[in-house]
Design brief:
Radius of gyration: 24 Å
Structural class: alpha/beta
Largest sheet: 8 strands, mixed
Helix content: 25-40%
Strand order of the largest sheet: 1-2-4-3-5-14-6-13
Amino acid sequence: MILEDMIEYRRTLHRIPELENHLPKTCAFVKAQLQGLGCTVTEPIEGAVCAFFDEGKEDALAFRADMDALPITEQTGLPFASEHPGKMHACGHDGHTAMLLGLAETVAARRGTLRHNVLLVFQPAEENPGGARPLCRSGVFARYGVRAIFGFHLWPGLPLGEIATRSGALMAKSSEITLHVRGKSVHISKYQEGADSLLAASTFLQRVYAMERAESPPETPRLLKFGRLEAGRIRNAIAADAVLEGSLRAFTLEDFADLRRRCEEIAVQVGQESGCAMELTFSEGYPPVTNDPALVAAIETQLGADAPRRYEGLALTTEDFAWYQQEMPGVFFFLGVGDTEELHSARFTFDERVLERGRAFYEKLLDLL
């Protein structure tokens, strides 16, 4: 019966995708489903809903789902497709929220038998600008004595229903890189009198790529790539300005800091050689998702054959679940949806039977520690 409920939850949410922190319909729907379940419902920040189940214990376990959608026009053809033009649940957050609502039903049914209090966190703005950090700063986890937090992400390419994770680093720290180059425009017949911002940006790009190839240890996955370069106005004038945009991702703060330092050094060198002003900036981004080793070990020991398999490799994608792990022990899991479209595709959807697999695993975690 809970699976049927979760499928209906997912389909309702899929019809009403909302962005960032502004989730009025989504929050109203979530709160309506929590009514009558015996939990205390709060809204610690804009767009968030938290449900606390008080078992009279000294501590609590937290479970998190993200609720925001993406600015994408849906192309799935589903009968429950988005009713909000230009918005779509293309990253599975509708499924994450449906699983957590299913867990809410489970927790309510098991009142009086639980080993911990339970806090369910329905979070906004995972995609942008980030809702986990403001929730940490709200004090909600300290207020309810949360000792550990768990979360799922639906994961294309992983066999349907398979759950995987790993101790330590799982997903990358990210930062968006922007290089502004300011030179001097002259007619190309007098190029010696100018300062070529286009050439300077291209030189920086080539040297950064060469540095990464030469200096990155093969056993240390990290990413430094650029996807956009804009410069100049017309073909026969040296470009006065250029903008180069890319992304830096790494799995440790040390690797990230090293790559950032080397990029800054190269920018200074190219600026001195070219006569252009080089302004290199890095967004703060999200920390790496780093699973608590002791908590992963406890899950493996206590669940035995039901424990998640070890995820091989590292995911160069990012997740703001990482902010929770800066505050308390936490484990993030991938839940396989098989051979589907990639996340953020306008055609992404999934086999809804997987929702019960996620809810049932969450229920096992209720009895941990």
